[in-house]
Amino acid sequence: MPTGAPAYRPAPVAAAAHRLAMLKLATASEPRYAVDERELQPGASGFTFDSLASLQKDFPGKSWILLMGADQYSKRETWHRWADIEKLCDYAVFARPGCNLKTKAKIIPMTPMPISASDIRARLARGEDVSAMLPPPVLGYIRDHRLYR
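^ that's the sequence the OP posted. Answer follows.
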């Protein structure tokens, strides 16, 4: 679920249409994934609570698990209506280098990668090779549209 341009933080570097296209390319080969565009709609707040409430309204009776990195999980108490979010879903957290998690949330086992999206964008801006860090269709899209230069 790509975010639009929420008022509570700076706008993303790439336009919403580009981020949506890249997400669709990145997930195209995985039939279990679906890209949801609700946060890109006019008037969408971008707040996690509002998105989860909208999902519950559109898909009644479904349970939800919010996936996030440990860095975001550790800041969740600063989020809009964070205590209400915990009533709408469970959490699953991906470990990040240097994060020591003490949580009741489900921890997703994976080898942490010492790289971030910000770092990839910075490398692209410097003209460095990031081919090992992105799915080939996404990197092709970035190059074709001259993003992150």
